UniProtKB/TrEMBL annotation, chain A:
UniProt organism field: Pseudomonas antarctica
Keyword Protease attached: yes
One annotated GO molecular function: metallopeptidase activity
Record protein name field: Peptidase PmbA
Cited InterPro entries: Metalloprtase-TldD/E_C (IPR045569), TldD/PmbA_N (IPR035068), TldD/PmbA_sf (IPR036059)
PANTHER family given in the database record: CONSERVED PROTEIN, TLDD PROTEIN
The keyword Hydrolase belongs to this UniProt entry's keyword annotation: yes
Keywords tagged on the record: Hydrolase, Protease
Domain Metalloprotease TldD/E C-terminal, residue spans: 214-436
Pfam family, one: PmbA_TldD_3rd
Any one biological process term the GO annotation gives: proteolysis
Domain of life: Bacteria
From TrEMBL, chain B:
E.C. number: 3.4.-.-
Keywords on record: Hydrolase, Metalloprotease, Protease
One of the GO BP terms on file: proteolysis
Family according to the record: Belongs to the peptidase U62 family.
GO cellular component, one term: cytosol
Enzyme class: hydrolase
Superkingdom of the source species: Bacteria
Residues in Metalloprotease TldD/E C-terminal domain copies: 238-475
Organism encoding this protein: Pseudomonas antarctica
Metalloprotease TldD/E N-terminal domain location: 24-86
InterPro entries for the chain: Metalloprtase-TldD/E_C, Metalloprtase-TldD/E_N, Peptidase_U62_metallo, TldD/PmbA_N, TldD/PmbA_sf
Coiled-coil ranges per UniProt: none
Cell wall biogenesis/degradation in keyword set: no
Official protein name in the record: Metalloprotease TldD
Gene it is expressed from: tldD_2
Amino acid sequence: MNNFKALVQWLKQAVTDKEQFHLGYADESSEFVRFNHAQVRQAGHVKQASLNLKLINDGRHADLSITLAGEPELDRERLADGLQQLRETLPLLPPDPYLLLNHNAWQSHNEQLRPLPELAQVLEDISQAAVGVDLVGFYAAGPISRGFASSDGAFGWHQANSFNFDFSLFHANGEAVKASYAGHTWSSAEFAARLQQVREQLEFLGRPLHNLAPGQYRAYLAPAALEEIIGIITWGGFSAQAIASKGSSLQKLYAGEQSLSPLVKVDEQISGSLSQAFSTEGYPRGDVTLISAGKACGQLINSRSAAEYGLSTNGASSDESPSALQMAAGSLAQADILKQLGTGLYISNLWYLNYSDLPAARLTGMTRFATFWVEDGEIKAPVSTMRFDDSVYSLLGSQLEALTAERELLLSASTYSQRNTASNLLPGALVKRLTLTL
Amino acid sequence: MFDHHATLKKHFSALRTTAEFFSLRYVRESGQYLSVRKNVAEPPYLNHDEGAMLTVRLNGVEAYAATHDISLAGLQAALERAEQQARRILPHALLDLHTQQVSSDVADYLSPDLDQPFPSLSDCYQLLGDESASVPKDERLASWEVSLGTTRVEQTYLNSAGAELRQAQRFVYPGLSVTAFDGNDSQTRTLGGTNFGQQGSANVIHRFGLAGAACQVADEALQLLLAPNTPNGPRDLLLMPEQMILQIHESIGHPLELDRILGDERNYAGTSFVKASDFGHLQYGSPLLNVTFDPDIPEQLASYSHDDDGTRATKQFLIRDGLLLKPLGGALSQFRSGLSGVANSRACSWNRAPIDRMANLNIEAGDKTQAELISGIEHGILMNTNRSWSIDDARNKFQFGCEWGQLIENGELKGVVKNPNYRAISAQFWRKLSAVGDASTFKVLGTPNCGKGEPNQVIRVGHASPACVFSDVDVFGGDA
């Protein structure tokens, strides 16, 4: 934090009276280990830090991302070069009618510095627990920091240590179960128990495959499977700009022409989540109810959309996607899932979803990892990979029978550019009809 | 250009290690993304990024450390972290690389026209603004955006065996998108964006045809709004290059990646329906199918002289006359599998390690003009420009959707249809290839957005293809 604060101090004295700035900061020091066949396939360490500088002058603004070197004098030099580049850029731009600045000097601070596990211990635990099983996976661990400061005196800091071991166990027949062990404190016993649980699920996958014909089936979507559906909906679904420009898959929900089941309540719950409580645009992020009793409620609104569409910003990210989404629990007890499913599909995960018809919220995707055929409340056999094609208004609307009482916190394992801090807290969903097509 | 090279070489020669082999890969990237949305200039996004990855081989085990600190002290510290990682994983390592050969090549590679200045920021905004303003005034046109992205990359690879490889490249991505809405349905028509990018200078923008394109794109969005849904049922399918690139990418490119076949990606990107024993034996497609790994088309996105492990890249047939010959596997995967591959070990930046990636993966042109392709179809549909893609983790069962459809009846193009989708199985689909367009239908395209790997990487890939016809494919429309 001291490095960042020093850069902020320098920038405050470097800008003129007419200039304003936003300065974002991100760094991480990450250990990455890939496993294949329960051994280490690739391992390394990545140390990176970057600034995002927005310079504003006379209604004009531009953004510049700069990789830092980690050496104070050189970093100050790079920031000075960046400031100069933006000063030369702004006169070439027209004033931005959608620039909406937050002049509040808000403060936010969150630090979690619990000690991280020793890699040697982690490797030993994984190696021991995975004896005799084909494990493939990815371990990522280390500290992550995010910061924000503005020329108006706003300052936010978020720092957290975490690890995420995302893995799968493969049966010799090619079928697999996926799981993860993630958090702040690595416990060898807890991990061994988690892996043992997954080993037990793997045994079901050794049974002969049940081949399904395309058609309509009752289905239970476990939280990780529901996360894939929620994940693609959040691709612009709740975005104020996407809704206004007719690029949202939920445009009919927001127009009041469609509804979901009254069981469905969805919130962006930043407070208490693992994500930072401020946006890269300099706004504190608020909790937002997005869907209530199956009807559209709030949208995710960044400052640009607020200015363009006459709305109030809730500190949404630049792409107006959620990062701490929660879906309300239902009443279906974990122990009753198979019984209430009766005969149908138990789907642990879905994969590679996309739209068949975006305005109609019609999705397609694949089953992946541990999908079972259930008869009279008993798991009978694994099911070969199948494609579904169905509407959100059906799956989470007319055909939604129940949501589970227990929810699962799913931490993002995404590491595109940097380790992601997003999470979803979701129940499982029992649906009366899922359409399989291939 | 390469102004860091002398310092990097000096630092590299000063590094101290007990490793039997080590390498340094330095990457510097700068770029800008400009767009005008509904006649309002969005603020520009500029970036500067640089860093280096040090890789060591110690007792036959490789490990890496990437750092943003490229001072001698920073590089030395990263080298030591990599050594420490290699020691830690030694008891658990999957691979013994004692006998793997390393590169000692020396070469430079430059994008075409790199010496030509790129239009100024003002000129770029003028072009985007003019195009945005030429979108017709029609209240059904709900949104439109014209964009231009450029990325300039310099990379230096040095290793302890004497390799010295430098690349300087510029990538240009023009794009145009218009969405029409009639109060119920919305339809989007695009040009470029994630379907188009090339190496070069301002000539890329001209080749792309951005200037003057907005009217036609807007008109096509409105036509789609008025069009009926694509009918359901089997038809012959004429795919234009803007959809062929997705078809090649998902159902030839990914399944032929050797690291997937070796199981590395099973926890994330997936596996493959292709087995190592299939190379040299499997009839992947009809005899009309010829697929190449081709790093030699200068403007294509992934043209280069060497990959990121230092292997020299040359044009190779992966599939010839429909027969599967070679995987997309770099030096390491070739060493592990004993199969012959190509130079496709690539990293998205300095902070990610090279893995098997697509590069330029192309379908060679055939002998039919577009008119001949259409006239050979009795009951079919033309589809253009990908908008939806979904395929299983073994890259077999797929469903793809396009923006634009046009029915074909008795050898003639008929009316426009909206929401054209099709589904099939890769292992069978390419055997239905019944006609391949000639050079006049061939386009050099590509995408900057191919995701794969743990940690995740998104990388540029090039695909060039003629228009192609597939017989008897399951086609269907949307709900609206």
